Amino acid sequence: PENVSDWGKVVLAYEPVWAIGTGKTASPEQAQEVHEKLRAWLRSNVSDDVADSVRIIYGGSVTAGNCIELASQNDVDGFLVGGASLKPEFIEIINARA
Ligand SMILES: O=C[C@H](O)COP(=O)(O)O
């Protein structure tokens, strides 16, 4: 933590390996559970400020069809999009948290 001078520029991504490019997506509950634990780790090991400001994004078969529900989770701050970023539906994923 002491080696990072600006936590505002740090983005943490959670990507379950079984979800990358497979069409299998973590459920919103699964993603929330992991993101919440990552944020709790930051709170314990770094600071409240960092825990509250670091963006924790989810990656793994995000689509227009599942992005709204995933984005509705408290600790899901955005997405790391692979395959769907090459399709027109990408705009819907970009706007999922708008
Ligand atoms: O680089 C992107 C991530 O590995 C997720 O890829 P995906 O959205 O095709 O599963």
From TrEMBL:
One of the entry's Gene Ontology molecular-function terms is:
triose-phosphate isomerase activity
Q: Which InterPro entries match?
A: Aldolase_TIM, TIM_sf, Triosephosphate_isomerase, Triosephosphate_isomerase_AS
Q: Which reaction does it catalyse?
A: D-glyceraldehyde 3-phosphate = dihydroxyacetone phosphate; dihydroxyacetone phosphate = methylglyoxal + phosphate
Single Gene Ontology BP annotation: gluconeogenesis
Which pathway is recorded for this entry? Carbohydrate degradation; glycolysis; D-glyceraldehyde 3-phosphate from glycerone phosphate: step 1/1; Carbohydrate biosynthesis; gluconeogenesis
**Role:** Triosephosphate isomerase is an extremely efficient metabolic enzyme that catalyzes the interconversion between dihydroxyacetone phosphate (DHAP) and D-glyceraldehyde-3-phosphate (G3P) in glycolysis and gluconeogenesis.
Q: How does it assemble?
A: Homodimer.
Question: Could you say which protein family the record assigns here?
Answer: Belongs to the triosephosphate isomerase family.
Q: What is this protein called?
A: Triosephosphate isomerase
Its taxonomic placement starts with: Eukaryota, Metazoa, Chordata, Craniata, Vertebrata
By which gene is this protein encoded? LOC104945667
